[in-house]
C-alpha cells in the first residue's frame, strides 16, 4: 500500500512538473530564450521513466517490503518534496526540465541557489537513492544512481556553459558556498 502511495505521488508530481515546465518553456521561447543541446533530453526522460519501471519491477517482482526504518525514510522523502517546491518556486518562470536560457537574464540568487550550485540535481540524486532505499530496491538504487551521475555530467556542463555565456552566472558562482567551481576549467 505504501509503495503504491509513494509511486502514485511521484508520477502525479512529475506530470504536474512537466506541465509547469512546458508553460515556462513556451513563455521563455516567446521572449527569445534558446534551448541548449537538447539531444540528451530524450535520454534523460527515458532514464526517469525507466527508474519508475525498474522500481516497480523490483519491488513487485521480488516482493520487496518497506525498509525497517521506513518511517524515518518517508519523513526524509517528504522533506525532499518540500525542498523541491522551494527550488521550483525560487526559479519561478525560469524553472524547466530542459536547458533554456534567456540571454541577458539575471542568474537566480534566491532560495537554495544563494548557497548551492544546481540544488535541483542534488535533490533528484537524493531521491534516486532514498526512494529505492525506502523499499529495499537496491538494484534500482545502484543502477540509477550511476546512470543519473552520467547524465548529470553532461547536463551540468551544458547548463553551466549556457548560463556563463548568456547570463551573469559567474557573479553567482563566486558567492555560492558549495560546490566551488574549479577556476582552471576551460570554457568552450
Automatic annotation (TrEMBL):
GO CC terms, sorted: membrane
Transmembrane segments: 40-57, 69-88, 121-147
Keywords: Membrane, Transmembrane, Transmembrane helix
Top-level taxon in the UniProt lineage: Bacteria
Localization terms from the record: Membrane
One Pfam short name: ICMT
Transmembrane in keyword set: yes
Membrane topology note: Multi-pass membrane protein
GO terms assigned for molecular function: protein C-terminal S-isoprenylcysteine carboxyl O-methyltransferase activity
InterPro entries (alphabetical): ICMT_MeTrfase, Metal_cation-efflux_comp
Protein name (database record): Isoprenylcysteine carboxyl methyltransferase
Amino acid at each position: 500500500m505504501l509503495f503504491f502511495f509513494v509511486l502514485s505521488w511521484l508520477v502525479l508530481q512529475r506530470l504536474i512538473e512537466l506541465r509547469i515546465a512546458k508553460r515556462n518553456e513556451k513563455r521563455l521561447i516567446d521572449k527569445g530564450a534558446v534551448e541548449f543541446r537538447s539531444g540528451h533530453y530524450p535520454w534523460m526522460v527515458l532514464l526517469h521513466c525507466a527508474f519508475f519501471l525498474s522500481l516497480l519491477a523490483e519491488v513487485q517482482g521480488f516482493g520487496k517490503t518497506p525498509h525497517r526504518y521506513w518511517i524515518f525514510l518517508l519523513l526524509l522523502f517528504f522533506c525532499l518534496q518540500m525542498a523541491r517546491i522551494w527550488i521550483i518556486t525560487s526559479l519561478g518562470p525560469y524553472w524547466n526540465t530542459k536547458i533554456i536560457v534567456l540571454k541577458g537574464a539575471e542568474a537566480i540568487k534566491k532560495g537554495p541557489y544563494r548557497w548551492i550550485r544546481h540544488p535541483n540535481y542534488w535533490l533528484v540524486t537524493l531521491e534516486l537513492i532514498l526512494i529505492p532505499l525506502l523499499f529495499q530496491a537496491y538494484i534500482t538504487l545502484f543502477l540509477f544512481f550511476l546512470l543519473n551521475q552520467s547524465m548529470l555530467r553532461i547536463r551540468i556542463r551544458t547548463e553551466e556553459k549556457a548560463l556563463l555565456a548568456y547570463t551573469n552566472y559567474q557573479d553567482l558562482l563566486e558567492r555560492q558556498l558549495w560546490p566551488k567551481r574549479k577556476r582552471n576549467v576551460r570554457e568552450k
